[in-house]
Input
Amino acid sequence: MDLTALSKKRNYIVIGLVALFTVLALWVRLIPMAGLTASGEVNLLGNDAWYNFRQVELLVANGLAYAWFDPMTLYPTGDTIHWGPLFTTIAAVFTILTGASTPPEMAVAASMIPAFMGAAMVPLVYLIGRRLADWKSGLFAAAFMAFVGGAYFYRSIFGFLDHHIAETLFATIFALAYIVAISKGREQSVDLRSVETLKRPAILGAVAGVAYLLGLFVMPTMILFALIVAIYTLFQFIFDAWQGRESADLLVINTVLFAVATVGLLIFGLKHEGFGFARYSLGHVLSYLLIIAGTWALYLLARVTKERPKYIYPLSLLGISVFGLIGMMIVAPDIYAIFVSNFLGFFGQSAQILTVMEAAPWSFEKAWYAFGYGLVLMAGGLAVLGYGAVAKRRPEHLFVLVWSALLLISTWRHLRYEYYLAVNVALLAGLCAGTVFDWGWKGLATSRTRVQPQKEETNTGKGKKKNTPKKSEKKASGPDPMQILGMIITGILSIAFIFTSAQANIGFSESMGLYGGMNHPDDQQWQEALFWMNEHTPDPGVDYYQIYEKEGFQYPPESYGVMSWWDYGHFITTIAHRIPNANPFQHGVVGPNGVAAFFVTGDEDEAVRIMEADGTKYIMTDYKMDNTAVFDAMATWDDPVNKSAPYKPYFLFQDPGNPGTFQTAQMYGPAYFESMTSKLHNFDGSMVEPSQVLYVEYAEAGASGYSMPVITNAGMMNATEAEAKVGAFNANAKSGMKAAIYGTGSRVDLPPEKVPALHHFRLVFESSGSILSALYPGTPDIKNVKVFEYVQGARIKGEGTIEVDLVTNTGRAFTYRQESVNGEFVVPYSTTGTSYDVKATGPYRIVGTGTTVDVPENAVMQGLVVGA
Output
């Protein structure tokens, strides 16, 4: 093989390989496309993707004007949008260029943008890898970027129409621009008095500033990279001062960069009040100006201490920082509080936030599942960066080291940053692999070189020349075993990283095509209910495609809200074209009128108060809200201290198959069955008497020697028998021992105590599927998704128990029963005149009296008195 000729064509080979990796990255991300588009309906992955699609619809319908306020979510106030417009504008422009006009066509076009952006990351990471090392590291990084998995891959596939991949793309573009700026800026000496020497760092800083603005216009959390720059700048000034070097180039770069960012943001406009970093607020401007001021302070302090001992500069910084923070706390406590609260917002954790999947903390298991062998290579890349930053004094290596370290910390605190970290994993893994192979290959090349002794002609003085050997040169040694071993191990790790990631990604893409989005049985049930809501409930009077200004906006009289858990808010907006009371921005969730308080309360009067305060007409429930961790999340949002303990307490019990060890069990207490969620979803608002219950004897927490109570005896039995046993046991129980009655998660239809009927809520629709009856044989036919209407309730005079038989839209029959209160019944179901497909099969009956009463629809809606 002619290596010289091959070397001349290296650039073409590298370009070809990067193009190949890019095509492969795009291909694996488009695999779900066929499955997600098969139904002909809009089909997207994740919750937020649905709201991004709504934004695309608004942009296309309004000449690419962006809506910063949306009255189609968070009734009765509407919501201010905190996302930036860049991602959805790109998707909308592409949608227009493709000629897509119907919602399904627009969804297909827009859904391709995440895949395109994911593919674009491949050449981008190659450029960074080449800048940090050489083309070999760049190629490895590009190959790894094409296949790196975890949350990053999910957020860059077809159908995941969310801004996450755009955040990653434009943040990485900024990182490349800043790396070029700080490396190129040091190539010539900078004199602040010489305009000529200022040009290069100023231009580089301006380019980095524009790149930063692009990331900022995707999402305000781009400020995280301003923090990365600030930390890097601090370390770089300390290193430079230690080496006796002025950092005028970095001073100019940072000043211009954040001046451009500040001016650009002010031109763009401060869209939100306050100082929050997660909003387009004055907090960003203040932060950028502080970074500029901080860079100048670092520079001036370095000049002042230049002739002093080296340790004076870092010690001076430490002292100034400590006294500066104390001074800020005293002199400007409001500003200090702003930065502390924003810092906690980025890196802090609360019981409520931990219920959100992407805000949960990372773990080693999650890390390995996402990146696998790439983490091993990443560790090697960190070592390479550390060596380059310290021994070779390369500023770009220090910057990437800080960038990677901060993202590792951020991801460890909040899982959502994993899709940012994927870039660093691929990049550092590539840097490690490229460095090892470069080191090993050069060693092999040297070992193959053999210097042969040469003869030298000398004149003997007799007209003859004599060949005399030159001084013998030492032959090169053989291959270094460590170099060979290093290449082998790195090669195996690299292949394993790519192979396992590619295999997982292909499998994941295929599964998303089959079961992702509305192809999943659960979401199909939601789609069924939302289509029904769109067609069979009153129009709320707000134009879905119109952009409204927040100032002066008032809802029309016919408007109303739809109550559901926040997970489903964007579904309600985008599919049903109705207005949710809460949304996946986690707005409308907490507080006395929040949806969390509504769904866990056991007091119907309190539930009615919340309905009136929120202007709610319909409630949507599903089996997850009723009988999975979603209920626990609702309880935690309502009460972050006690969480779900009042409703579903945990117990320990001995493992029958492994004596001496314990397992946990979650009991379902009376408070759970009396919650609005259970009353609605399990019992359709009807009164229910206890029948079979779970009798439990246990040692209380502490008395058992454990942090949870320990079950000593348990069994299902008749409610009357169980009540008698509880009374008898507790009357003679030893200290720390107790007995109680509970229900179980497998039979949510069997409450431990009587559950009173609801007077103001009626079932109007239910989906066709029933996962609970499939999971737990013997459970009644409780449908996956249900829709209820809030009504005044008709009033009937009488005593005792009243009941009416009903048939739902799916053909399921049930009986609504209610006990009188103060000589009156307040009933939510009409027997005549309803427009819904949940209908009574006859009149109400007052049990044991022979009295029957017909209830017209208007009586239920207006709270009229009917009957005798």
About this structure: Residues 296 and 448 are 53 Å apart (CA to CA). The domain at 785-866 is CATH 2.60.40.3390 (Immunoglobulin-like).
